[in-house]
Amino acid sequence: MVHLVLIMMLTVGVSTRACPIMCTCRNYPLDNSQKTSTYFTSVSCSSYTENITDILDNTTRDFEISNLHQQELADTLNNLIENKLDLPYLSNLIITKSEIENLNVSVESLERILSLTLIDNRLESLPEVFLNLQNLQTLDLSHNEIKVIELEPFRTLRTLDVLNLSANSLTKIDSGSFSGLNVLKCLDLSRNNLTKLDDQVLLPLSSLQYLNLSNNRLEALNEVCFSSLIMLQQLDVSWNRLARVAPGSLQLPSLARLLLAGNPQLGRSREAAVLVGTGRRLQTVDASRTGLKQVPAALTHSIRTLRLAGNSIQTINCGDLDSYPLLQLLDFTSNDLEVIEEDAMGRLDSLSVLYLTDNNIHEIPKSLPEKLKVLHLEHNNIQRVSSKDLLGLTGLEVLLLSDNKIRTVDEAAFSQLVSLVTLDLSRNPVTILQPGCLVGPSALQVLRLSSIGIISPAEEVSFPLSAPEHLITLDLCDSSGLARQFLADTATLAASRELQELDLSHTDLEFIRSDLLHYLPQLRVLHIKDNNLNCSHLEWLASWMRRQDEPEYRDIMCASPADLWGTPLVDLQDGELSPIETINQQENNIDREIINLQRENNTNLYQISTGQYTTESTNYISLAQEEIKNVTNITGLIDVTNYTKYFNKGETDFSKSNNPEITNEIEKVNIKKK
Ligand SMILES: *[C@@H]1O[C@H](CO)[C@@H](O)[C@H](O)[C@H]1NC(C)=O
Ligand SMILES: *[C@@H]1O[C@H](CO)[C@@H](O)[C@H](O)[C@H]1NC(C)=O
Ligand SMILES: *[C@@H]1O[C@H](CO)[C@@H](O)[C@H](O)[C@H]1NC(C)=O
Ligand SMILES: *[C@@H]1O[C@H](CO)[C@@H](O)[C@H](O)[C@H]1NC(C)=O
Ligand SMILES: *[C@@H]1O[C@H](CO)[C@@H](O)[C@H](O)[C@H]1NC(C)=O
Ligand SMILES: *[C@@H]1O[C@H](CO)[C@@H](O)[C@H](O)[C@H]1NC(C)=O
Ligand SMILES: *[C@@H]1O[C@H](CO)[C@@H](O)[C@H](O)[C@H]1NC(C)=O
Ligand SMILES: *[C@@H]1O[C@H](CO)[C@@H](O)[C@H](O)[C@H]1NC(C)=O
Ligand SMILES: *[C@@H]1O[C@H](CO)[C@@H](O)[C@H](O)[C@H]1NC(C)=O
Ligand SMILES: *[C@@H]1O[C@H](CO)[C@@H](O)[C@H](O)[C@H]1NC(C)=O
Ligand SMILES: *[C@@H]1O[C@H](CO)[C@@H](O)[C@H](O)[C@H]1NC(C)=O
């Protein structure tokens, strides 16, 4: 990908020769350094052009044509033949959305290509066009209507690496179809209608590493169908109708990734003996939606990722996971789990990610592995987070408890989670969050407390998170009590200096304290949709929002005062304020917008100094300019009595600094003469 981007960036320009209007012609440097004068050409035509040979030459590497009728395609190829075009560097030929059924020509100038892509041409059988492609490495025939493979069509493609037959109409593949493909590494047969795999079909594919048979209608895998695939690393047989997997059929020495998902009969037949008898390299197994009622046993102990989502597992017993000592990721999403025996997971020493989402779990499982980093418990029936849960999980980084029935969060419930970065308690019937119930996770970056109906009055209780210093995202959407607590809690606000995204939408918000942005210098996105905003004196916010340029801000409407009802907040202008006239500091051109005021004690006297600031740190300076300002350092005392402030701090006036916490703090403001 990076490579591709690089090539795109290094595009030298459009070919000097006239490129027909229906084509695009691009030149790329031959290697990735721009210094070279040699380049290759990539030509792509979206419809027929009679003079195509004019633009193909010994620099052409890629040639793509699409939307051609059968005759146009034949003409194009004949054109190449008649002109005896030499295309020594042509590597990639792409023909799409064209009629190439029954095409049977041999084009000498195309014979050296490495990659042939014939996607989406409604091919019903394999065209003979590529019979002579001695160097072909990649053949993509996906999205056609191929029903049968006859006469060993690939036997001459001795160098083929990748064969893609995905999204065709194959119902059966004859033995011998793949003969000659001794070096094939990748075979995609997904999205066909295969019901059966003959024993011999895959026999020649002794180099195969990737086989995709997903989205077919296979009913059984017999003992020998894969037996020659000794190099196979990835096997995808998901979304079939597998009911039977013969013992031994998956005993493949190189198999590392086995995808069995979406075969609902599989687990029912014989309690999931599927994984008994797989090779010792197996690392990833997806047995989601396979009708399992129990954790399947496995003989190999090498599995690191096990997905069992969408099954009917009700219990995880002690010992069930003994076959998986190296497990790092375990997914039980959407099962019927109710009981997880106390030590069922305790011995999974490497487990780092555990999904228990969408089950019927009533309490947070005990004795979770110490190394756990990510714990998904959303959509369960958990009623309480007690201080005895989550013990010892000092490495836990992500804890998701949203959409449960949690009414109580004990004090210090999270106290041991010192590494926690993300916590989601949204949509739980919690009515009280004691101050300090979120003590412990001192590095928390994302806190989601959406749709929580706290009933405690805002003024009396401080916001429950005690250490917001690293908070980046705070979601209080639809939690009006918490939103009010947060906005009223100046200490917490003042500590949230890293906050970048704050969601206060749908929280019955009427007023927004005018110093909000002052406390949250890093704020980038403020969600305040669906409130009853009183827009008097919100010009500062409007002007900040205009600078943020978030599309959703267009939907924030004023609810009052009456003359602003229905007005988008962003349209508020600081109407009555005249352009800034800053205090004239001596003769030099002091940058107008940026002035420091340091309050002298509790008087109206301010120490002025100016300096160099970026707009980054001065969110609330109106008319802020983008570039860094260089201004002379001037200090002096000024009595602000006769100046009105012109800064987006709205109502906050200098006397606001009576708040001992911000007295004498340097403020950056605009000032204009009254
Ligand atoms: C193709 O080339 C011929 C002569 O070289 C010219 O007369 C004709 O207009 C060209 N057609 C197109 C579509 O460029
Ligand atoms: C490509 O063809 C041109 C003449 O058409 C010739 O001058 C040039 O050397 C050829 N380049 C290569 C790499 O063969
Ligand atoms: C394709 O053409 C070759 C010779 O030009 C011929 O031997 C072969 O039978 C043809 N194949 C089809 C399917 O028409
Ligand atoms: C095969 O083609 C399909 C559709 O064009 C594509 O999605 C898939 O990734 C390809 N398979 C491989 C292995 O490249
Ligand atoms: C597979 O077969 C079914 C029924 O015979 C048919 O409806 C469906 O279109 C076929 N799918 C493909 C990709 O050919
Ligand atoms: C197999 O093919 C299906 C459908 O084309 C695709 O969604 C899936 O990702 C592929 N599997 C692998 C392992 O690449
Ligand atoms: C809106 O706020 C202004 C100033 O804070 C106040 O005078 C006015 O009464 C408020 N309007 C409503 C409808 O609350
Ligand atoms: C502010 O207080 C300090 C001592 O607390 C005093 O020295 C200084 O003179 C005071 N400044 C003004 C302008 O009152
Ligand atoms: C600010 O002034 C310094 C020293 O005079 C100078 O090096 C720097 O380039 C100036 N910065 C800008 C953005 O003008
Ligand atoms: C500006 O003044 C401050 C104190 O008011 C001082 O720390 C700083 O060094 C001064 N900067 C310059 C460039 O003189
Ligand atoms: C403020 O203005 C009044 C009237 O114009 C004037 O008497 C007073 O001296 C001024 N105060 C200061 C500190 O400039």
From TrEMBL:
GO terms for cellular component: plasma membrane. Keywords: Leucine-rich repeat, Repeat, Signal. Residues 1-18 form the signal peptide. The keyword Repeat applies. SMART domains: LRR_SD22, LRR_TYP. This is Uncharacterized protein. The keyword Phosphoprotein does not apply.
